[in-house]
Amino acid sequence: MFSESYKAAVIQMNSQTDLQSNLDSTYHYIEESVERGAKVVGLPENFSFLGGLSMRMNKADEIARKVPKFLSRTAKEFEVYIMGGSYPVPTGSGKVYNHSPFYTPDGEEVQSYNKIHLFDVDLDKDESYRESDYVEPGDPKSVIYESDYIGNWGLSVCYDLRFPELYREMVADGSQILSIPSAFTYTTGQDHWLPLLRARAIENTSYVFAPAQTGLHGKNRKTWGHAMIIDPWGRVVADAGQEPGIVIAEINPAKVQEVRSRIPSLKHRRM
Ligand SMILES: O=C(O)CNC(=O)[C@H](CS)NC(=O)CCC(=O)C(=O)O
Hints:
alpha/beta, Nitrilase/N-carbamoyl-D-aminoacid amidohydrolase, 6-stranded mixed β-sheet, 5 helices, 30% helix, binds N-(4-carboxy-4-oxobutanoyl)-L-cysteinylglycine
């Protein structure tokens, strides 16, 4: 039923607060990914605007108007599936959803997910985040784009990565590829990013697909990078390091089944 293996690209970006220039570089990354054979391209969390949470709120209406048009047009132009990272969508009550859309090559948004777990964390006396000041959480349930061509993609965003029960539910609902577009902090990323991603891949015998932000955004926001793709055995098959760019790996939905028969841990659950 499923197509054979295909190339998928994760994009690593250093997004700033100039919407148009972020969209221009996104366009070039997508174009180059497709030239290099990618059938699916994934963007990081807040690829279109990153740097100031309150600044982004002033821009949210414009972002929410322009980004879906951009993603639709670009998916169509290059005939590519796009996992559109995330962008803010006003809820109507003064906050936004941190919204992760999935586009097909005909330019349709066929599925979308609103980030559930919000990053309200004090890492240090001068490093605090209060995502819930701006963002409304989505419904706590799994969201999957099911495709006969590219497999079943479970959608999540960044901080969700720390909540394994979400991925368990996605897998129970049929996910084979776990999508985790991110802007992990440098502070947490250096110690937590890789082990968490590999754990999600191994414990769910699933691909992990994690585009990322990297570098400095404004003066005091620093992200970890290392956008990557991990196979269902838990091997890192693509790692972007710390520079912005594109990394590509093969995704083969049939391999998920193969690994699940070698390690049937999902079948052995007793709770
Ligand atoms: O708001 C933006 O501009 C972009 N979005 C983010 O940076 C989000 C919400 S503040 N970051 C995370 O979820 C980091 C999680 C993380 O780093 C961890 O779990 O350790």
